[in-house]
Design a protein that fits this description.
about 250 residues, Rossmann fold, 7-stranded parallel β-sheet, 7 strands
Amino acid sequence: MGLLENQVAVVTGAGRGIGRAIALKFAAEGADVVCVSKTESNSERTATEIRALGRRSWSFGLDVANAPSVTAAVQKLLGEAGRVDILVNNAGITRDGLIMRMSEEDWDQVLDTNLKGAFLFTKALARTFLKQRSGRIINVASVIGLIGNAGQSNYAASKAALIGLTKSTAKEFASRGIAVNALAPGFIETDMTAGLSEEVRQDILKQIPLGAFGSCDDIAQAALFLAGPGARYITGQVLTVDGGMVM
């Protein structure tokens, strides 16, 4: 029997990268998974992989920062699945640039997707979790939210705020047995890092004691721990998965 047998998990940003890895890991451990992505084809592709593992899966293509879309998707899902046990707020984007040149649009898009999206999904599922008196919420932040990074003020602000949201929500929900934690990945091999020049990659590697970039599976394993029975007594914490970068 898997660690998440017969539980229902919602994973945003599940169409690729870290979100896809988490969705597949959860399904392999017995969960039915709701795949949310801005692009319907991406979320459906992951959902198809999950169904091939013998688990139920739903796919939604929506903007996580659009409140009516999130509310409608959650209502539809609850009508079909009946419950949700795990929420992983992973959807995230970058729009890098020095702050003196950053457009208001680039600031708003990153904060809306990375922070408001997590707020909207958490709010939409709050009553369900509270009524069940159980649940796990995992917010995927970043080490950049802990240490900042030149050219990523919007991204750093969104991820730092996501950590604050995690801790506040953990305090609000703890009395009902709901654990809320954050993951702070370091530099992971994803589409976001694929465009880095070799010079930049080498500079980053010098900052990582383990001397290598992480994989999406490294983050999925950490998410599985926080979602599973071994993390029953952990809430309001930030787990860095970064090869020792910010130890």
